[in-house]
Amino acid sequence: MHYTGTVYRNPYEPPSPLLEITQGCSHNKCKFCNMYSAVKFKPSPIEWIEEDLAEIASMYPNTHRLQLLSADPFVLSFEQLDEICDLVHNYLSDIEIMTMAARVDNIKDKTVEELEILKSKGIVELNLGAESGDDWTLKRVNKGYESKDILKQCSKLDEAGIDYWLTFLNGLAGKEHSKDHAINSAKIFSQCNPTVVGTGGLVLFEGTGLLAQYRQGKFNPLSEKGLMEELKLFIENLDFDGRFITHHTFSMNLNNSNFKENKQRILDSLQHGIDNLDMDRLTQIRNNKRSL
Protein backbone atom coordinates (compact mmCIF):
# COMPACT_ATOMS: atom_id res chain seq x y z
CA MET A 1 0.00 0.00 0.00
CA HIS A 2 1.14 3.53 -0.73
CA TYR A 3 0.84 5.66 2.42
CA THR A 4 2.64 8.99 2.67
CA GLY A 5 3.76 10.16 6.11
CA THR A 6 1.67 9.48 9.20
CA VAL A 7 -1.66 7.82 8.46
CA TYR A 8 -4.66 9.49 10.11
CA ARG A 9 -8.02 7.76 10.04
CA ASN A 10 -11.35 8.57 11.63
CA PRO A 11 -11.39 6.36 14.74
CA TYR A 12 -15.16 6.68 15.12
CA GLU A 13 -15.94 5.05 11.80
CA PRO A 14 -16.39 1.27 11.46
CA PRO A 15 -13.14 -0.49 10.55
CA SER A 16 -12.52 -0.49 6.81
CA PRO A 17 -9.60 -0.55 4.36
CA LEU A 18 -7.79 2.77 3.84
CA LEU A 19 -7.12 4.02 0.32
CA GLU A 20 -4.87 7.05 -0.10
CA ILE A 21 -5.93 9.19 -3.07
CA THR A 22 -4.18 12.43 -2.10
CA GLN A 23 -1.06 13.24 -0.11
CA GLY A 24 -0.98 15.94 2.55
CA CYS A 25 -3.42 18.84 2.93
CA SER A 26 -4.43 21.18 0.11
CA HIS A 27 -4.58 24.14 2.54
CA ASN A 28 -1.98 23.29 5.19
CA LYS A 29 -2.13 26.80 6.69
CA CYS A 30 -4.36 26.38 9.77
CA LYS A 31 -2.56 27.82 12.79
CA PHE A 32 -3.56 24.99 15.14
CA CYS A 33 -2.50 22.01 12.99
CA ASN A 34 0.85 20.35 12.29
CA MET A 35 -0.46 17.04 10.94
CA TYR A 36 0.77 17.51 7.38
CA SER A 37 3.45 20.16 7.82
CA ALA A 38 6.13 17.88 6.35
CA VAL A 39 4.03 16.53 3.47
CA LYS A 40 3.62 18.46 0.24
CA PHE A 41 0.10 18.25 -1.13
CA LYS A 42 -0.48 16.41 -4.39
CA PRO A 43 -2.92 13.91 -5.84
CA SER A 44 -1.72 10.34 -5.62
CA PRO A 45 -0.72 8.88 -9.00
CA ILE A 46 -3.59 6.93 -10.51
CA GLU A 47 -1.17 4.00 -10.94
CA TRP A 48 -0.62 3.90 -7.17
CA ILE A 49 -4.34 4.00 -6.51
CA GLU A 50 -4.93 1.11 -8.90
CA GLU A 51 -2.13 -0.93 -7.35
CA ASP A 52 -3.54 -0.32 -3.87
CA LEU A 53 -7.05 -1.28 -4.99
CA ALA A 54 -5.68 -4.55 -6.35
CA GLU A 55 -4.01 -5.19 -2.98
CA ILE A 56 -7.20 -4.36 -1.06
CA ALA A 57 -9.18 -6.63 -3.39
CA SER A 58 -6.79 -9.51 -2.64
CA MET A 59 -7.16 -9.06 1.14
CA TYR A 60 -10.74 -7.82 1.49
CA PRO A 61 -12.55 -8.89 -1.69
CA ASN A 62 -16.01 -8.52 -0.16
CA THR A 63 -15.54 -5.24 1.65
CA HIS A 64 -18.48 -2.90 1.26
CA ARG A 65 -16.77 0.13 2.81
CA LEU A 66 -13.66 2.25 2.16
CA GLN A 67 -12.15 5.23 3.95
CA LEU A 68 -10.34 7.52 1.49
CA LEU A 69 -7.22 9.42 2.58
CA SER A 70 -5.48 11.86 3.15
CA ALA A 71 -6.31 15.24 4.79
CA ASP A 72 -8.93 16.48 2.32
CA PRO A 73 -9.18 14.17 -0.70
CA PHE A 74 -12.53 15.74 -1.65
CA VAL A 75 -10.47 18.65 -2.99
CA LEU A 76 -10.01 16.61 -6.17
CA SER A 77 -12.19 17.69 -9.06
CA PHE A 78 -15.45 15.97 -9.85
CA GLU A 79 -13.80 14.35 -12.87
CA GLN A 80 -10.92 12.96 -10.80
CA LEU A 81 -13.23 11.63 -8.08
CA ASP A 82 -15.57 10.15 -10.67
CA GLU A 83 -12.66 8.28 -12.26
CA ILE A 84 -11.48 6.99 -8.88
CA CYS A 85 -15.00 5.82 -7.99
CA ASP A 86 -15.15 3.83 -11.22
CA LEU A 87 -11.77 2.28 -10.46
CA VAL A 88 -12.94 1.33 -6.98
CA HIS A 89 -15.98 -0.46 -8.39
CA ASN A 90 -13.85 -2.24 -10.99
CA TYR A 91 -11.82 -3.86 -8.22
CA LEU A 92 -14.38 -4.02 -5.38
CA SER A 93 -17.80 -4.92 -6.71
CA ASP A 94 -19.47 -4.90 -3.28
CA ILE A 95 -18.50 -1.33 -2.34
CA GLU A 96 -21.47 0.68 -1.10
CA ILE A 97 -19.89 3.29 1.19
CA MET A 98 -16.91 5.58 0.69
CA THR A 99 -16.10 8.20 3.32
CA MET A 100 -13.39 10.83 3.63
CA ALA A 101 -12.36 14.01 5.39
CA ALA A 102 -13.01 17.29 3.61
CA ARG A 103 -12.60 21.01 3.96
CA VAL A 104 -15.72 23.12 3.54
CA ASP A 105 -14.25 24.80 0.47
CA ASN A 106 -13.60 21.41 -1.20
CA ILE A 107 -17.31 21.40 -2.06
CA LYS A 108 -17.31 24.81 -3.71
CA ASP A 109 -16.33 23.76 -7.25
CA LYS A 110 -18.83 20.88 -7.43
CA THR A 111 -22.43 21.31 -8.55
CA VAL A 112 -25.33 19.61 -6.79
CA GLU A 113 -25.75 17.39 -9.85
CA GLU A 114 -22.09 16.32 -9.64
CA LEU A 115 -22.45 15.65 -5.93
CA GLU A 116 -25.48 13.48 -6.67
CA ILE A 117 -23.44 11.45 -9.15
CA LEU A 118 -20.63 10.95 -6.63
CA LYS A 119 -23.17 9.84 -4.06
CA SER A 120 -24.66 7.34 -6.49
CA LYS A 121 -21.18 5.87 -6.87
CA GLY A 122 -20.67 5.46 -3.13
CA ILE A 123 -19.38 8.76 -1.71
CA VAL A 124 -22.11 9.00 0.89
CA GLU A 125 -20.42 10.76 3.82
CA LEU A 126 -17.88 13.55 4.40
CA ASN A 127 -16.15 14.50 7.65
CA LEU A 128 -16.00 18.31 7.55
CA GLY A 129 -13.35 19.91 9.75
CA ALA A 130 -15.26 23.15 10.20
CA GLU A 131 -13.68 23.80 13.65
CA SER A 132 -15.74 26.97 14.26
CA GLY A 133 -18.75 28.89 13.02
CA ASP A 134 -17.44 32.19 14.34
CA ASP A 135 -15.93 34.43 11.67
CA TRP A 136 -13.42 36.11 14.00
CA THR A 137 -12.09 32.70 15.03
CA LEU A 138 -12.02 31.30 11.50
CA LYS A 139 -9.98 34.29 10.35
CA ARG A 140 -7.74 34.16 13.44
CA VAL A 141 -6.62 30.60 12.71
CA ASN A 142 -6.53 31.00 8.91
CA LYS A 143 -9.16 28.40 8.03
CA GLY A 144 -9.62 29.98 4.61
CA TYR A 145 -13.40 30.42 4.63
CA GLU A 146 -16.22 32.13 6.53
CA SER A 147 -19.28 30.91 8.38
CA LYS A 148 -21.53 31.74 5.42
CA ASP A 149 -19.49 29.28 3.36
CA ILE A 150 -20.27 26.51 5.85
CA LEU A 151 -23.99 27.16 5.42
CA LYS A 152 -23.81 27.41 1.62
CA GLN A 153 -21.71 24.30 1.03
CA CYS A 154 -23.56 22.17 3.57
CA SER A 155 -26.85 23.08 1.90
CA LYS A 156 -25.46 21.62 -1.35
CA LEU A 157 -24.62 18.39 0.47
CA ASP A 158 -28.14 18.33 1.94
CA GLU A 159 -29.65 18.76 -1.53
CA ALA A 160 -27.45 16.00 -2.95
CA GLY A 161 -28.22 13.67 -0.04
CA ILE A 162 -24.61 13.31 1.14
CA ASP A 163 -24.29 12.91 4.90
CA TYR A 164 -21.67 14.92 6.75
CA TRP A 165 -20.02 15.39 10.12
CA LEU A 166 -19.20 18.82 11.53
CA THR A 167 -16.35 19.28 14.01
CA PHE A 168 -16.05 21.94 16.71
CA LEU A 169 -12.54 22.59 18.05
CA ASN A 170 -13.01 23.48 21.69
CA GLY A 171 -10.63 26.25 22.85
CA LEU A 172 -9.68 27.42 19.37
CA ALA A 173 -10.45 31.11 20.05
CA GLY A 174 -8.58 31.34 23.36
CA LYS A 175 -10.00 33.06 26.43
CA GLU A 176 -10.92 36.42 24.96
CA HIS A 177 -13.29 35.11 22.28
CA SER A 178 -14.38 31.84 23.89
CA LYS A 179 -18.02 32.87 24.28
CA ASP A 180 -18.39 34.03 20.67
CA HIS A 181 -16.65 30.89 19.38
CA ALA A 182 -19.02 28.62 21.33
CA ILE A 183 -22.29 30.45 20.68
CA ASN A 184 -21.71 31.34 17.03
CA SER A 185 -20.43 27.87 16.19
CA ALA A 186 -23.55 26.33 17.74
CA LYS A 187 -25.77 28.72 15.78
CA ILE A 188 -24.13 27.86 12.46
CA PHE A 189 -24.05 24.12 13.15
CA SER A 190 -27.73 24.23 14.17
CA GLN A 191 -28.63 25.70 10.77
CA CYS A 192 -27.00 22.74 9.03
CA ASN A 193 -28.10 19.11 9.02
CA PRO A 194 -25.08 17.08 10.17
CA THR A 195 -25.54 13.44 11.02
CA VAL A 196 -22.68 13.79 13.54
CA VAL A 197 -21.27 16.70 15.52
CA GLY A 198 -17.85 15.95 16.93
CA THR A 199 -15.74 18.00 19.35
CA GLY A 200 -12.18 17.88 20.57
CA GLY A 201 -10.00 20.11 22.71
CA LEU A 202 -7.21 22.33 21.39
CA VAL A 203 -3.64 21.23 22.04
CA LEU A 204 -0.78 23.61 21.24
CA PHE A 205 1.46 21.31 19.24
CA GLU A 206 5.03 22.08 18.23
CA GLY A 207 5.33 23.77 14.88
CA THR A 208 1.92 25.43 14.97
CA GLY A 209 1.21 29.13 14.64
CA LEU A 210 -0.89 29.22 17.80
CA LEU A 211 1.94 27.78 19.89
CA ALA A 212 4.30 30.44 18.49
CA GLN A 213 1.75 33.15 19.34
CA TYR A 214 1.28 31.71 22.83
CA ARG A 215 5.04 31.92 23.43
CA GLN A 216 4.94 35.55 22.22
CA GLY A 217 2.09 36.36 24.61
CA LYS A 218 -0.36 36.81 21.73
CA PHE A 219 -2.61 33.81 22.42
CA ASN A 220 -4.21 33.06 25.78
CA PRO A 221 -5.39 29.42 25.87
CA LEU A 222 -8.25 28.15 27.99
CA SER A 223 -7.59 26.12 31.12
CA GLU A 224 -9.08 22.62 31.39
CA LYS A 225 -12.01 24.06 33.32
CA GLY A 226 -12.36 26.82 30.73
CA LEU A 227 -12.46 24.23 27.95
CA MET A 228 -15.23 22.36 29.70
CA GLU A 229 -17.19 25.54 30.35
CA GLU A 230 -16.87 26.54 26.70
CA LEU A 231 -17.99 23.09 25.59
CA LYS A 232 -21.02 23.36 27.88
CA LEU A 233 -21.93 26.74 26.36
CA PHE A 234 -21.60 25.27 22.87
CA ILE A 235 -23.86 22.34 23.76
CA GLU A 236 -26.43 24.61 25.43
CA ASN A 237 -26.81 26.52 22.17
CA LEU A 238 -26.62 23.52 19.83
CA ASP A 239 -29.78 22.11 18.27
CA PHE A 240 -29.50 19.16 15.92
CA ASP A 241 -30.88 15.66 15.64
CA GLY A 242 -28.01 13.25 15.31
CA ARG A 243 -24.98 11.62 16.90
CA PHE A 244 -22.74 13.56 19.29
CA ILE A 245 -19.07 12.66 19.85
CA THR A 246 -16.45 14.29 22.03
CA HIS A 247 -12.86 13.26 22.75
CA HIS A 248 -11.12 15.16 25.53
CA THR A 249 -8.68 14.63 28.37
CA PHE A 250 -11.54 14.03 30.78
CA SER A 251 -12.92 10.50 30.97
CA MET A 252 -16.65 11.24 31.00
CA ASN A 253 -18.55 9.45 28.28
CA LEU A 254 -20.68 12.13 26.65
CA ASN A 255 -21.02 10.30 23.34
CA ASN A 256 -24.48 9.25 22.24
CA SER A 257 -26.50 8.51 19.12
CA ASN A 258 -29.37 10.94 19.80
CA PHE A 259 -28.28 14.41 20.85
CA LYS A 260 -31.72 15.95 21.26
CA GLU A 261 -32.92 13.15 23.48
CA ASN A 262 -29.78 13.19 25.64
CA LYS A 263 -28.84 16.88 25.63
CA GLN A 264 -29.73 17.53 29.27
CA ARG A 265 -27.92 14.38 30.42
CA ILE A 266 -24.80 15.55 28.54
CA LEU A 267 -25.02 18.98 30.15
CA ASP A 268 -25.52 17.51 33.61
CA SER A 269 -22.54 15.19 33.19
CA LEU A 270 -20.39 18.03 31.97
CA GLN A 271 -21.35 20.23 34.90
CA HIS A 272 -20.53 17.39 37.28
CA GLY A 273 -17.09 17.21 35.68
CA ILE A 274 -16.58 20.97 35.96
CA ASP A 275 -17.40 20.78 39.65
CA ASN A 276 -15.50 17.62 40.57
CA LEU A 277 -12.70 16.61 38.20
CA ASP A 278 -8.99 17.06 39.00
CA MET A 279 -8.04 19.87 36.62
CA ASP A 280 -4.32 19.62 37.40
CA ARG A 281 -4.27 15.98 36.31
CA LEU A 282 -6.20 16.81 33.12
CA THR A 283 -3.75 19.62 32.35
CA GLN A 284 -0.86 17.20 32.70
CA ILE A 285 -2.54 14.73 30.34
CA ARG A 286 -3.08 17.45 27.74
CA ASN A 287 0.50 18.72 28.04
CA ASN A 288 1.77 15.19 27.38
CA LYS A 289 -0.11 14.82 24.12
CA ARG A 290 2.12 14.83 21.07
CA SER A 291 -0.37 14.22 18.30
CA LEU A 292 -4.07 14.10 17.61
Automatic annotation (TrEMBL):
Residues 11-241 form the Radical SAM core domain. InterPro entries: BchE-like (IPR051198), Elp3/MiaA/NifB-like_rSAM (IPR006638), rSAM (IPR007197), rSAM_horseshoe (IPR023404), rSAM_sf (IPR058240). Its cofactor is [4Fe-4S] cluster. Signal peptide: none annotated. Keywords: Iron, Iron-sulfur, Metal-binding, S-adenosyl-L-methionine. GO terms for molecular function: catalytic activity; iron-sulfur cluster binding; metal ion binding. It comes from the Archaea. The keyword Secreted does not apply. It holds the Pfam family Radical_SAM. PANTHER family: ANAEROBIC MAGNESIUM-PROTOPORPHYRIN IX MONOMETHYL ESTER CYCLASE-RELATED, RADICAL SAM SUPERFAMILY PROTEIN. This is Radical SAM domain-containing protein. It comes from Methanobrevibacter millerae.
